[in-house]
Structure formats: structure tokens, C-alpha cells
Amino acid sequence: MTLNDMSRKLFKNNRKQYGLFFFSIVFSIAMTGAYGVLQYSPTVTNVLVDGGSTQTISQAMFFGSMLGIVVFLVYADNIFLKYKSREIGIFLSLGIDRQSVQKIVVKEYTLLFQLAALAGLLLSVPLAYLCWSLLNLFLETQETAFRIGWVGLITAVLFSLFNWFILRTINRRFIKNVDILKIIKTSDETEATKNGNLFLLILGALLVPAGIIAFFTLQDIGGFLNTMLAFIGLAGAVWGVYLLIVQCATIEDILKKYNDKAYYKNIVFYNLLKQKIRQYTRSIFAATLLITFATFGIGFIAAGFIDGYNVALNEPYDYTINATYEHLITKQRIFEIAKESNTTITDIELIDCLLLGVQNNYKNGKNDWSSRIVVSEDNFNTLSGAGISVPKGSYTVYYDSSMEYKLNAFSTDSSLFYNPTTEQEFWFTQNEPICRDRLFNTRSVFSSFLILNDEDYRTLAATLADEYKAVSYMVNVENWQNTADFQNNILQAVISDNGGVIFTNWHNSATFAKTGSQAKYLPFEGNETKIARVWSLYPLSKLSSTTTQFEAFATYLMLMLFIAIVAFVSAVMVIGLKLISTIWDDAEVYHDLRRLGKKQKRIKGLITKQMLFVYFIPTVLGCIIGAFATYRIMLVSGVIYIGKTMQLVGCVCGLVMIIQIAIFFMLRLRIMRSYT
User: Fold this and answer.
1) N or C: which end of the chain has fewer CB within 10 A?
2) 518 phi and psi, to 5 degrees?
3) What's the CA gap between 150 and 147, in Å, rounded?
4) What number of other Cβ atoms are within 10 A of residue 358's Cβ?
């Protein structure tokens, strides 16, 4: 019999293990590829703001999931090698030198991995299309059409090569160092581990929330040092998760010290945990991170939808219609459009404004230029009834509570202003800021602006070109839910006035000369939802905010839902693989217990406890950590309706638990039939 004949025969005898490893590779590469295809799809990248928090978090979750999948593949490879070691032992016992055995195994492994990786890559695009199409049934919009992200597919190819190199190195090192006697006694081996420690358990429980709080708080403050400290805090949180899992797996030592009755009652279970501590911690740690990603991803993106929806419902005006003096829409024309649309206007107010350049002076000592909306004190007092006075040569910052972060740019007693038409610079001193909620619509450009003395305002207006002057009409109507025609006709009128081509970055135009930026124009046709998202003069309404503009952000939701699906399915695979290997490993223990007279019911109870530990520790920890991380990022992001978002996160966690319980009972039923 040749070596090839022996290899084929051994392969037939271990088809189950080969199949499991092959499937693990296919699944990992397919999921990574599908994730990458969507993460870098033009559908997604055209919506995600470059360098924005959503892009940063989605990419962090992408690479975090890849790290979890690497851990999963290393673990799957360890299980494969464990059963492959008997074959290696046979070859070595026949006198075949290690180098030849190494070549045989590496050749076999390479062929298996390449076929599996190729299958995974081929499946990645159809899998991404299938999942995206399924989500599109609920959220189909102009900007959610499926498009392949080739960068993501290339990333999946590189990821495959990276995993092949890692696993190949592990396999070569295993064969080089393997001992025949250890192979023979492998079933009797236990892992040396440190004892459980109550202090480390408490430390882990404290590090997780402390690290998450530090990460989001310091990231929000900004600066290189704070960013570095933030990631140190994140690393501390991850280490805390690992400590918690290790201490849960060695809980027997803590129980033995503080509650010996509970320990001796389940002594076999606790010792089985401790014997395989490294295996448990690796798989549970990876699964915990993946479920955390899934929970956080849904909570993070849902916060924006829930907050935006509820803010829109509670806006003081039903409509905010904006226009520049270059393309002015008049009050009379608005009434005419309302009449044509069978809409009754109950109230209409207007506010004039200018767009000027202002040098921002931040608390950290840095400064830059940006364009700012400026209104007159008389116009402000008429609308607000505040009766404020702005001395000549000064300005007052107005903001609603959601825009408090804007004050960071006005940390000094005065600011340098810039007239983009005359290119003149001049100083104004700063007065005490004013904060008022529900004065203007939060989502409009008037959520924050500067108020000037009437004389200063008129002087500047006389020298400023019409392109830097704007007017905003704030309109209330009867029954705004039934004004779709009015909303559409107003939008078409504004677009028609602009010749169908939109000056999308008008809000920055006053400082183009200072920042080096240029005007960006987009045709409205074909870019409807993008323009609704980026154009500050877009005619806003409660109707558009609660319905039409929802489409502009549907891609965010679909991406995060896909991320959550990938992370959750990956976690289930990691846990499932661990359960299968645990029961395989401990089958002999169960038989020994049966020989010692332990009843079948008690053995089933032991298996159930092991499954409960492996299956629900990552589920519970992942949901709790993901929910807490969502809560913290909302606190630093100025989200208003935090409670409503947390209710949704609670429902997501409940759904995850229900799915996990259903899968658990199916796996338990199958395992019980096989091993008891």
C-alpha cells in the first residue's frame, strides 16, 4: 500500500472531520467576502460620509468580525489537527520521517483549503446579493440597489491568503513538535490552568464598562492623546471580557472557597470546564465579540432613525422652505402652490439670513474657518419674542440643546469675520450665548446661528452678493400627514428655480477662499436622496423627515443589518463548532460515568449544563455589552430619545435570546441522540 493509498483510506475514515473543517473555511470566506462586497459597494460608500462616525464604526466592525473569524478558523483547525494527529501518528509509527509526513499533511491541507476558499469566494457575491435583496424587500429605495464592491472582494482574497498562511504555519509547527506518546494519550490530556480568582472576576466586570465609557468619552473630546487613551480604554474593555470568560470557566475554584456545597454538587461539570479552559475561552471570547458587534451595530444605526423620527414629529413648524436670493421663492408663490395642492396654510413666518465666514477658535487652541448663518436681532426678536439686545460690533451665538457642541468653536471673547464678496476681515466681540429649544426646526440650518446688531447686519447685507443671502419660510398647515402633494410641488418648484442643478455645498461657500474648497454641483435627477441628505437648503417637512428622507438613510440601516446578520451567524457557528467538539471530546467521560452507575438522566443533565455554559455565556455577555456600548455612544452623540432606542435594543436582545434558545434545543436534541 502506497502513502497515497493510506491517505485516501484515512480520509474516508474521517470524512466527518474533513467535512466540518471544509465547511468552516467555506463559511468564513463566504461571509467575509459578502461583507466586503457590501462594505465597499458604491451603494454604501456613496452614502457613508468619508471619515464619518458611521463609516468608522462599520469598518471597525468589519475588521473586528474578520478578527473573530480568524479565531474561529484557528480553533476549527485545532479540532481538525486533533483528529488528524492520529493519522500523523500512524505515519510516524511506520518510520516515515517528519519532513515527509509534513509534506503529505501540508499538501492535503493546502488542497482542502484552496478548494474551500475558492468555493467561499464564489459564493460571497451571490450570498451578498441574496441577503441584500431580502433586506430590500422591506427597504427598497433608489440608493439601495445592489452593486458589487470589488475592493471588498479583493480584501476577502487577501484575507483567505492570510488565513492560509497562519493555518499552514500552525500545522507545520504542530507536525514538527508532535510527540507520538502524546498522540496515543491525547484523550487523557488535560490543560494546565491558573486557579479561578474572585478579584479577577470583579476586575473583569469593572473593566468592561469602564473601558467602554473611556473609549466613547475620550473619542468625543478628540485630540491625539485622547484618541490614544480611548483605544487603551477599548483594549481594557476587551481584556475585561476575556477575564470574565476565563473566570467563569474556572468558577469551581471560587465556589470551592465560598460555596463548597454548590461545587461538590456539580464537581464533574466544573472539572470538565477547567480541563478545557483554553478551548472554552477562545471560542466563547470570539462569539461574545461577534454578538456584541451585532447588538451594537443595530442599536447604533437605529438611534439615528428613532431620534430623527421623533424629533421630526415634535418640530415647531410643519415645513421649512429655504431659498437663496439668487433663486428666491416668495410667500405669495408658496400660498399659490398650497392652493393648487389642496393644502391650507395656518401660519407662515420668515427669517432672512446672511452667510459669512467666521474663524473658529476651539478649546484645544486650534482654529480654522467655516461658514456661518447670520441673522439680525430684530428678525430674531420678532420670531422668538425674546427681546434681546446685541450691541454694535458684537454677536450672540444662538443654539438649541442638540447643537451645544457648536460652542466649542467660540471659546474666545471675540471672533474674526470674513465677507466673501468684499474679501474684508473684521472683528466682533462675543456676547453670552442663548439656548432655546423648539424655536426653529432642529433639522434645519437654523438649529444654530449668530445674531448681529441690526445696523451691522444691514451694513453687511448691502455689500454682500445675493448668492450669500437666503430666506427661510416656516410654515404650519392643517393635517400635515396628508400634504404629500404640497411637499412634492414645493420641492419641484425649488429644484426648477435652481435649473435642476443643485449647489450642494452652499453652506460652506463663504469660506472657499479660506479653505481652498470648490463649489460642488449635482443634477437633481438621479441624485434625489443624496441631495436630500447633503443640501442645507433642501425644503424640509415633517412629512419628508418621517417618510421621504427615511429613504436617504436606508442604506445605513441595511448595511448594519447585514453586519449584524454576519456577526450573529458567525457567532452561532463558533458556538456550534465548540459544542460539537466538546461532546466529541467528552464522549469517553460520559461512557465512564455510565459504567460507574450514573443514571442516563444525570448524564443528560451534565451535557445540558456544558451546552448551556458554552452557548449562553457569549449570548448574555454579548447582548449586555452591546447594549451598554450603544447607550454610551448615544450619550456622547447628543441623541435625544435614548429611551426609545434602548427599548429597541432590548427587543433585539430578546429576539437574539429567542433564536439562540430555539437553536440550542435543536442542537441539544441532536447531540442527546448521538452521545447518550
Assistant:
1) N
2) -130, 160
3) 9
4) 22
Query: Which of 519, 548, 577 is where one domain is finished?
Result: 548
319 burial via Cβ count (<10 Å: 0-12, 13-18, 19+): buried
The residues, any chain, with a CB within 8 Å of residue 297's CB and separated by 6 or more, are 57, 58, 61, 560, 561, 563, 564, 567
Residues 166 and 201 placed together within one structural domain of the fold: no
Percent over 70 (pLDDT), the chain: 75
Q: Which helix (H) or strand (E) holds 653?
A: helix 642-675
User: What is the CA 94 to chain-centroid distance, rounded?
Assistant: 54
* Domain containing residue 224: 194-275
| pLDDT for the residue 89 | 64
pLDDT in tens, 88-102: 666 666 666 666 766
| Domain shared by 261 and 328, yes or no | no
455 in a structural domain = yes
Q: Is there a single domain that holds both residue 8 and residue 123?
A: yes
Helix and strand counts by DSSP (H, E) for the chain: 23, 12
**Position 524 in a domain:** yes
Given a contact cutoff of 8 angstroms between Cβ atoms, the answer to whether 496 and 489 are in contact is no
Do both 396 and 492 map to the same domain? yes
The burial class, CB within 10 Å (0-12 / 13-18 / 19+), for 589 is middle
HEC-encoded secondary structure of 321-382: EEEEHHHCCCHHHHHHHHHHCCCCEEEEEEEEEEEEEEEEECCCCCEEEEEEEEEEHHHHHH
pLDDT digits 0-9 by tens, 480-495: 889 989 999 999 999 9
Backbone angles phi, psi at 108, to 5 degrees: -65, -45
Span 363-392, average pLDDT: 91
Tally of structural domains, the chain: 3
Using an 8 Å Cβ cutoff, are 381 and 387 in contact? yes
In the chain, % of residues over pLDDT 90: 25
**Last residue of some domain: 530, 548, 566?**
548
Q: Are residues 494 and 508 in the same domain?
A: yes
- The answer to whether residue 263 is domain-embedded is yes
pLDDT beyond 60 at 192: no
Residues 170 and 139 in one domain: yes
Distances (CA, A) of 655 to 71, 476, 650: 26, 40, 9
Same-domain check for residues 473 and 512: yes
**Is the domain of 77 the same as that of 139?**
yes
What value does the mean pLDDT take over residues 396-410?
85
> pTM to 2 decimals?
0.67
| Choice between 186 and 229, residue whose per-residue pLDDT is larger | 229
Q: Please give the Cα distance from 74 to 162 (Å, whole number).
A: 12
Give the pLDDT confidence score for residue 583 in this predicted structure. 64
